[in-house]
Amino acid sequence: SKELATAEDKESLKAKLSENKSKINEQSVKVNALENELEEIAHAIPNIPDECVPVGEDEDENVELKKVLNPPSFDFTPKEHFELGESLNWLDFVRGVKISQSRFCVLKNEGALLSRALVNYMIDFNRSHGFEFVNVPFLVNGATMFGTGQLPKFKEDMYKV
């Protein structure tokens, strides 16, 4: 035969149920925090190099696998690319910083034309080999930035709209 619960038993069970709900909610908050922390750590781990990639502690331990060209020798001291760009009036770092902050420059004159020519060449070359040309939006969502490896590493360098 079944025993019927008394009113006192019902109240006791309701209290235990309420207590268990509170404990579950507390534990859920802790679990979510730990999952977020684990996800953050996992996202900070870089891609693992292929097994054939040589291991070296520093530049001195780098292994040269193949040499394609010998560096040219000059009878003058070569300039850095940014020095050449400024002296030819192709690059304007001052305007670039004013527009977009540090690490940007404005391409001008033949510098802008050269950049455009390289883009056009790349498009034409790849299309001639069967690649589909697409023009994607400049603004993208966080999932896209994560998928392309920009997040979380470069989060502080990004602009948010």
Task: Characterise the protein shown here.
The chain is mainly alpha-helical. The chain has a domain at 12-46. 49% of the residues lie in helices and 2% in strands. A two-stranded antiparallel ribbon has the order 1-2. The longest helix is centred in the first third of the chain and has 38 residues, at 7-44. The N and C termini lie far apart (68 Å). 1% of the residues are buried. The model has no long low-confidence stretch (mean pLDDT 91).
Give a quick summary of the entry.
This protein has 161 residues and is mainly α.
Overall mean pLDDT stands at: 91
Along the chain, the helix and strand elements come as HHEHEHH
Largest sheet: 2 strands, antiparallel
- The span between the termini is 68 Å
List unreliable stretches of 5+ residues.
none
Instruction: Assign an overall shape.
Output: elongated
Estimate the strand proportion. under 5%
Rg, Å, rounded: 30 Å
Structural class: mainly alpha
Number of helices: 5
Strand order in the largest sheet: 1-2
Percentage of residues in helical conformation: 40-55%
Find the count of extended strands (DSSP E, 2+ residues).
Answer: 2
